[in-house]
Amino acid sequence: MQETMNKLPQLQAGALAGVRVVEMGQLIAGPFAGKTLGEFGAEVIKIEAPGAGDPLRNWRMIKEGTSVWWQVQSRNKKSVALDLRQSQGQELARQLLKEADVLIENFRPGTLEGWGMSPEELHALNPGLVILRISGYGQTGPYRDLPGFGVVGEAMGGLRHLTGEPGRVPVRVGVSIGDTLAALHGTIGVLTALYHRKVNGGKGQVIDVALHEAVFNVMESLIPEYSAFGAVREAAGSALPGIAPSNAYPCADGWVLVAGNGDSIFKRLMQTIGRDDLGNAPDLANNAGRVARVQEIDAAVGAWTQPRSINDVLAQLGTARVPAGRVYTAKDICEDPHYRARDMILAQETRDGYSVEVPGIVPKLSATPGTIRSSAPRLGDDTDAVLADMGLSSAQIAQLRTQGVIQ
């Protein structure tokens, strides 16, 4: 096992081999969908504006002039630097889309239409094209034209109201979860539409994903509880409201998460911490009873964990078959043998000449696993090759470069 750690999976044809994706837009939501499709074999051609390209190239921590985030978000992609504000650039994009299977865009609604690339116009050109449109509020409705970022989608989707400690300011999850949820919903839509195209006469369709709706879709029982009981779920810190015990508990050297909310698990947990009086209490034999006494139970678990180290707590709870875990940092993840045994930390060579460790690929397919076939491109790395593949001559490409249409 040690010999295979940190190495890229063996390259092979992916499940989406032969699917051509044109990715427009920038930053997170659209490009994350493109990343996911690319990892499973799709050819992803990313169109970027000449000059600076996708702003993500310069977000957060920079190495050798490029964000290390970019190395993950744009692996398995080709970069074409094309000015879509110019009519010639728009015509080149239309030619590219004529032979594509999927278009991904996350512009404000109406942007494609302004470039003469509305879904109706594109489907007239390529009836089988699957068009994924990700935006703040969707392509319809009274808010469609408002600017929307993932953070706003998280708030409108109901998530921000539940994050943080009761009575305190709502906090970020810590990552751009709204954008990523929208991207994953968009990816599901693309795969569904490709299947529909295959079995229903080759017709493409439009997938309309709103950031706030993607967040809202994972909000569990939020709306049924309000509808049935008038209950407005509130922030609960690290606890899981209505499920007990499930919380973060203090240790001598940090925090540990314990999920003792199964009936038999609860009895084993109480036995481990020396509280058989709680474990054998008739009213605590089911979740409803435990929720009614959750503060007492949490206090008992916390009193047991507090003087102990995280490792000691995890060892004892592991022996008792009680689900528990430490709160991982990036350092913890990189040093964890389980992550490496499952190829979730991979060494990726960049085009700037250095190696960087990056997340592996999820989900894991047995016959056609995802792969990293190429590192993230520099701006315009593939412009000439893609245009030549479209039939343009070297002289035509040089003329377009002189006119500032491409880079």
From TrEMBL:
GO molecular function: transferase activity
UniProt keyword annotations, A-Z: Transferase
InterPro entries in the record: CoA-transferase_III_domain (IPR050483), CoA-Trfase_fam_III (IPR003673), CoA-Trfase_III_dom3_sf (IPR044855), CoA-Trfase_III_dom_1_sf (IPR023606)
Domain of life according to the entry: Bacteria
Protein name per Swiss-Prot or TrEMBL: CoA transferase
Lineage, highest ranks first: Bacteria, Pseudomonadati, Pseudomonadota, Betaproteobacteria, Burkholderiales
